[in-house]
Amino acid sequence: MAEYYTPAIVLRKDVKNDKDSLYILYTRSLGKISAIAKSARKITSKLSGHLSPGRIADIRLIDKGSFQLLDALSKNGGRSNKEIAKFLYFLDNMTPYNQADPHLWYIAKEVVERLEVEPIVYREILGIMGFAPIEKNVLLKCNRCKKIGTQTQYFIMSDLVFLCANCLKDVKIEENDLVKIV
């Protein structure tokens, strides 16, 4: 049974049982993990206030085959907006479990602290993950029309493809599944 103390960004919170919560966290030292917080849904719980999505918290957890949250102390006020919610959704869907990446951690932490996301941040993260060239001046090719251009480009998470603005008009896609990268 290992014990960890690490900073984490709360990506998502789900109901586990009557009194428990399941948290999806992106941590500096462990990457993306899921952790159960026992009795976090009780009215007397001290954990739930520190673990709302969008908060950065110092967490203490143990690994007993699955992670269990023991303590949490949030650092920021937990303010969130539509941009940050979309960014958290992006991180949750695009990052694999148990793969720590310090560069990605510091980018995500800065975005959550500033409460704003520039399209170039999505491109940088996609570059770190190997989906796009890391160099910012390299133009991307639309997966539909195959044109390489300077116009606005988007990344569709469900299909892992890049589309230009013209091709995006012909595709029906949920707003949460789409990020502007240029």
Automatic annotation (TrEMBL):
Pfam families: RecO_N
One example of a Gene Ontology biological process annotation: double-strand break repair
Ranges for domain DNA replication/recombination mediator RecO N-terminal: 1-65
Annotated source species: Candidatus Colwellbacteria bacterium CG10_big_fil_rev_8_21_14_0_10_42_22
GO cellular component: bacterial nucleoid
Taxonomy, superkingdom: Bacteria
Entry protein name: DNA replication/recombination mediator RecO N-terminal domain-containing protein
Keyword tags: DNA damage, DNA recombination, DNA repair
InterPro entries: DNA_rep/recomb_RecO_N, NA-bd_OB-fold, RecO
Positions in coiled-coil regions: none
